[in-house]
Amino acid sequence: MKQKDYKEVRLTTEDNPYDPFDDWYNWNCFDLKEGYNTCARLASITNTSDQLSDEENKKIIEEAINSIIRLGAFSKEGKFIEYKLVYKY
Predict the structure, then answer these.
(1) What is the reported pLDDT for 50?
(2) Are 20 and 86 in contact (CB under 8 A)?
(3) Residue 7 within any structural domain of the chain
(4) pTM for this one?
(5) How confident is the model at residue 69 (pLDDT cuts 50, 70, 90)?
(6) Which helix (H) or strand (E) is 85 found in, with range?
(7) Is 78 left (phi over 0), alpha (psi -120 to 50) or beta?
(8) Does the residue 18 lie in any domain?
(9) Domain total in the chain
(10) Domain for residue 10, yes or no?
(11) Residue 46: which residues within 8 A CB-CB, separation 6 or more?
């Protein structure tokens, strides 16, 4: 994740028509309906902690996001779907 001057970043699949910032409810419904379970996937491989600094937690989350991007997802029909990042400035 090397986008300059962003405030927040979210992970989404290429086929999700909803903006995870502006329309999270519909974004999440689409994600769950398609079986991607992006939030659960991210949570399952992210080990953040209140004992760590914000920067350490941010690095852990970035590494998990990059891992999910490398792996991609599969639709219910078995089609490979790529992930992408959405930035909020």
Answers:
(1) 95
(2) yes
(3) no
(4) 0.83
(5) very high
(6) strand 83-88
(7) left
(8) no
(9) 1
(10) no
(11) 60, 61, 64
- For 43-80, letters b (16+ CB in 10 Å) and e give eeebeeeeeeeeeebeebbeebbeebeeeebeeeeeee
Residue type, 11: L
| Residue-range definition of the domain harbouring residue 75 | 24-88
Structure token digits, residue 14: 């290429």
- The structure tokens 């689409």 sit at 30
* pLDDT score of 36: 95
The separation between the first and the last C-alpha atoms of the chain, rounded to the nearest angstrom, is 14
**pLDDT score at 76:** 86
Average pLDDT over residues 56-83: 92
> Does residue 9 fall inside a structural domain?
no
